[in-house]
Amino acid sequence: EAGVAQSPRYKIIEKRQSVAFWCNPISGHATLYWYQQILGQGPKLLIQFQNNGVVDDSQLPKDRFSAERLKGVDSTLKIQPAKLEDSAVYLCASSLDPELSNEQFFGPGTRLTVL
Amino acid sequence: GQSLEQPSEVTAVEGAIVQINCTYQTSGFYGLSWYQQHDGGAPTFLSYNALDGLEETGRFSSFLSRSDSYGYLLLQELQMKDSASYFCASRRGGGKLIFGQGTELSVKP
Prior knowledge:
The complex is a heterodimer.
Chain A lengths: L4 E3 L2 E4 L5 E6 L6 E7 L6 E7 L2 E4 L8 E4 L6 E5 L8 E8 L9 E2 L3 E5 L1
Parallel strand pairs in A: 2-11
Antiparallel strand pairs in A: 1-3, 3-8, 4-5, 4-9, 5-6, 7-8, 9-10, 9-11
Chain B lengths: L3 E2 L3 E5 L4 E7 L6 E7 L6 E6 L3 E5 L2 E6 L4 E6 L8 E8 L5 E3 L3 E6 L1
Parallel strand pairs in B: 2-11
Antiparallel strand pairs in B: 1-3, 3-8, 4-5, 4-9, 6-7, 7-8, 9-10, 9-11
């Protein structure tokens, strides 16, 4: 079974530039999550989708971050404009319906450096 | 509150047993998950406890006491490959996870 795919793996940008990350979840997983993991900290949930609807985006800085999951499969996370403090690893995870499973499967992440 | 508390680092020797503790805030709490993350890698699921008691999976066990808002991960017969960061995470409604800051485990020969 293929795992969660993410691209790019690494990205370096200047502050105030825009950047987008892509995620392809495990086939059949209805729930998709985007996390931000700053060095030395645990992952912090940014947004959770159930199929193509948003379940929770309470921690998403909506003035600069946006995410979508068209057709309930792939998802993109965008930052516009980026700030220095956005330097982190952005992790995508997917799971079966949370009512059926407690396990989230994580992708390898995109390491973002903002200069 | 949403915070979880766990030690920042633990060191142990090969073959030993180590326990990583985690305390959590009870608001909206459904259960406690544990994830392992090697340097530069993705977090991987280890265990989930919704009810009080011990869950055993091979060399790893996880324990939960809801009355004490406390859980732990127990790693037995430590191996070098167990050197990694271990995160406890509070599961909330809808499957949302709130992660702790992580415990870095170093296994020495």
